[in-house]
Every structure is written in structure tokens, then in C-alpha cells.
Amino acid sequence: MKTMNLDKFLNILQKIDDFNSKLILNEDKEVVNELKLFYIKRFYSFSNSLLSLIPNMEKNKFSIISIGVILRTCMSDFITFYYLFGQVKKKPNEYEEVIRRFMADNLDYLHKDISKITDKKKRENLFSIMKMKWPEYFIENKNEIIKPLRKSISEMAKELINEGKTEHKDAYEYYNYLSKFEHIGKLTIDLQEYHENNLNENLNKLAVTYSLYLDSFICVVNSFNISNQLKTELNELIETAKN
Is the pLDDT of residue 11 over 50? Predict the structure, then answer.
């Protein structure tokens, strides 16, 4: 997607919304498939958010702030999930544990917060709820979360870029640029005001950034056994995005 007008972008987002409404994938506890399903759900959520916000760009220039923050998260997901999917090939005997430890990160922070509760009964009750919901993330017979694997976006991106994957270099550059919308600094207001007044350039940047996210979604969906009808619709979606 090299150039983009508003109608075309909305058409693509609407097609994605229609496609996702027909896509039914069963829950799967196998670690990689669970990760793929999670990615699809995130993609659907963000695409729907953009579908709500982008039509307002012409009427409300401030919507670009929310759009920028969402796209930054899209690029964060793009880098994170490709890093995790890459562990399957790199560590065929350990990838399940690597992915599980990575996904345990925010559970570990929640566990730490609960540990600060002075009311023992309340604290133990919350630990029990956590263990019932996420038993695979607890050390057996203990109220302790497995050791989380913490990797920053920059660390994951660096590993992917060192493997010669230019799309991840692009994703990280977009992520870094869009971070200025979220983290307050000297550039924040200048960039915000610039993008509030440059709709056509915004659409082109949105299109290029979102196309990376769309490509990853298509790859993930194609890894599942979907119906011929959905495959046809997915191919139509690809052609719409390319033209």
C-alpha cells in the first residue's frame, strides 16, 4: 500500500471486520496455536478501533493522537509475536517454556501487587483465583509464578533485524516514531500539531504501517486450516490492499 485515500483505507478495514466476523477458530491450549489465536484477537480489536477512529480524522484532527498510539501498539505486537514465533525454530525443545515464561511477565507483576496485601485471607484468596485461572504459570505446589522472561521491544527488534528481516527494521522505526505520541518529551507537541494538520500524509503513513500488521495477520490465519470460502475472501483482501 504505497498511497491511500480515506475511502480505500476504510474499505480495507471494513473487509477485515467482515472477514473476522466469519472466522471461527477453536480455542487451543497448544502454546503456539494459543499465541496465534491471541494475535488474531488483538489484530481484530485494533482494526475495529481504527475503523471507529479513522472516519473522524477529517472532522476531528485530534483523533490522530489515539490512532498513533494504537498503531504503536500494533508495531509492538508485530515485533513481539514474530520474536516469539521465531523461538519455535530456534529452540525446538524449549520454545513452549520460553513462550510461557514470556507470557508470565504481567502475571508476575500482578502476583507482586497481591503479595503486598496485608490481609492474609484476602491475599490467599486472590492467589487461589490466579492459580485456578492460570495453573500452568505457577510453580507446582507453590504460590509462586514461574520465572518470567523479560525482553524489551528494542532487544527483540535487534535480534530480528540481525537476522536480516527488513520488515522488522521498518516496524521498529515506526514504533520508535509513534512512541513520541505516547511519551511526553520536547518533540511530542510539535509532532502532534504537525500530524493534526497533514491528513493526506497521515493516511499514507497509516497505510504503510498498518500494511505490516495486515501481512502478519494474513500469515497467521493461513497457518490454520480454514474453509475454501475464507481462503478466497482472504485472497481478495490481499488484492484490495495491494491495489
Answer: yes
The C-alpha angle with vertex 223 and arms to 156 and 2, in degrees rounded to 5, equals 65
Residues 26 and 87 in one domain: yes
Structural domain count of the chain: 2
Evaluate whether residue 217 is within a structural domain.
Answer: no
Rounded Cα distance between 190 and 211, Å, is 26
Looking at this protein, which amino acid is placed at residue 45?
S
Q: What is the rounded distance in angstroms from the CA atom of residue 2 to the CA atom of residue 167?
A: 15
Q: How far apart are CA 199 and CA 64, in angstroms?
A: 9
Check pLDDT > 80 for residue 72.
Answer: yes
How far apart (Å, rounded) are the C-alpha atoms in residues 23 and 40?
A: 10
CA distances from 80 to 29, 44, 76, 164 (A): 20, 17, 6, 16
Domain that holds residue 61: 1-92+151-160+190-206+226-243
Q: Is 202 exposed, middle or buried (0-12, 13-18, 19+ CB in 10 A)?
A: buried
Distance, CA of 7 to CA of 21 (rounded, Å)? 21
- Rounded Cα distance, 242 and 1, in Å: 6
Distances (CA, A) of 92 to 32, 86, 101: 12, 10, 15
Report how far residue 175's alpha carbon sits from residue 72's, in angstroms, rounded to the nearest whole number.
5
CB 46 within 8 A of CB 70: yes
What are the cell numbers at 6? Answer: 480515506
Q: Is the pLDDT of residue 105 over 50?
A: yes
Name the amino acid, one letter, at 127.
F
Q: Read off the pTM.
A: 0.85
CA-based end-to-end distance of the chain: 7
Q: Which residues, at least 6 apart from 59, have a Cβ–Cβ distance to it below 8 Å? A: none
